[in-house]
């Protein structure tokens, strides 16, 4: 894992799993299935990561599992549930599920005074931010359990929560710069914050261009305090994704915004009428076939 030789590690585990199953050592099997889930997740193979985690949970349910190991299982469960947002399922359901798993992991690690408890707490705060409950972050950090782990990891999440609450891209970028090790270098946090940054950027751009029909891109970049080329690229992507109707006049360096096209009610009504006529024709055909018979 440390050398990032994930495929080689999976090849070694495949032979080891057969031997362990033959010996029926369930505790060791839990460790191996959990490690296999982590390796598949690192390779971005979520279905296999979930399957391995399910196997680990099934084996763990049949025996006594030490609290630290149960914490590892809950932590991996939370990570996988949070990752489900990639499948366009409701953010709130999966992040709330992830939040509950992270809470269980934190409880297990906290009872053992395990240093991994701070990462479980960090991911709990991440889930709160991702479901737009950033106001809860300060309360969790100032709680009795949170005060035990005050440090750079929690300070980083508090900075992100403040930026999200204020819808400020500038504060968001300052947080990413000041807490690079805690945010950018943590692959779990980095993936979700990249998505959050894109969402904040789109919301801010939509708010800024709303009063205009024609506006210079440089003016938008000045208002949002971002480089012109970055803003232009994002606006182009938003137009292609149909986030708003408009076009970029790159020669003049301007954005032209169109009025939202209004759907004419006559077309849906016409399609419904044609569909009903088709049903009537089908019904008459069936009746005539019965008469002829």
Overall description:
Strand 2 (246-249) and strand 3 (254-257) form a beta hairpin. The protein has 15 helices and three strands. It is flat and about 70 Å long. A three-stranded antiparallel sheet has the order 1-3-2. The longest helix is centred in the C-terminal third of the chain and has 27 residues, at 266-292. The model is unreliable at 86-98 (pLDDT under 50). Helix 2 (26-42) packs parallel to helix 4 (67-83) and helix 9 (152-165) packs antiparallel against helix 10 (169-178). The chain has helices spanning 6-23, 26-42, 46-61, 67-83, 91-111, 117-130, 135-141, 144-147, 152-165, 169-178, 180-183, 187-209, 217-224, 228-240, 266-292, and strands at residues 214-216, 246-249, 254-257. With 293 residues, it is mostly helical.
Helix content: over 70%
> Which spans have pLDDT < 50 for at least 5 consecutive residues?
86-98
Question: Overall 3D geometry?
Answer: flat
SS-derived structural category: mainly alpha
The spatial strand order of the largest sheet comes to: 1-3-2
> Whole-number average pLDDT?
80
Q: Give the end-to-end Cα distance, rounded to a whole number of Å.
A: 74 Å
- Following the backbone from N to C, one meets helices and strands in this order, namely HHHHHHHHHHHHEHHEEH
């Amino acid at each position: 894992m440390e050398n990032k030789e994930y495929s080689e590690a999976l090849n070694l585990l495949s032979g080891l799993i057969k031997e362990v199953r033959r010996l029926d050592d369930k505790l060791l099997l839990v460790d191996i299935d959990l490690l296999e889930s982590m390796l598949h997740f690192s390779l971005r193979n979520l279905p296999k990561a979930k399957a391995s985690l399910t196997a680990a949970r099934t084996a763990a349910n049949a025996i006594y599992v030490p609290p630290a190991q149960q914490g590892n299982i809950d932590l991996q469960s939370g990570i996988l549930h949070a990752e489900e947002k990639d499948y366009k399922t409701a953010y709130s359901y999966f992040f709330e599920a992830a939040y509950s798993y992270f809470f269980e992991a934190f409880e297990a690690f906290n009872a053992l005074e395990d240093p991994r408890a701070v990462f479980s707490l960090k991911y709990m705060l991440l889930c709160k931010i991702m479901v737009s409950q950033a106001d809860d972050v300060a309360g969790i950090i100032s709680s009795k359990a949170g005060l035990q782990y005050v440090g750079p990891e929690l300070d980083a999440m508090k900075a992100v929560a403040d930026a999200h609450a204020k819808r400020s891209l500038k504060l968001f970028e300052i947080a990413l710069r000041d807490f690079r090790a805690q945010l950018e270098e943590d692959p779990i946090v980095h993936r979700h914050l990249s998505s959050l940054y894109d969402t904040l950027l789109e919301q801010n751009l939509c708010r800024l261009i709303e009063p205009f029909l024609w506006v210079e891109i440089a003016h938008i970049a000045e208002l949002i305090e971002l480089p012109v080329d970055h803003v232009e690229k994002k606006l182009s992507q938003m137009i292609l994704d149909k986030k708003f109707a408009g076009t970029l006049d790159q020669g003049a360096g301007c954005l032209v915004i169109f009025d939202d096209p209004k759907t004419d009610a006559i077309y849906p009504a016409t399609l419904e009428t044609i569909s009903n006529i088709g049903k009537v024709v089908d019904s008459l055909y069936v009746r005539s076939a019965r008469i002829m018979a």
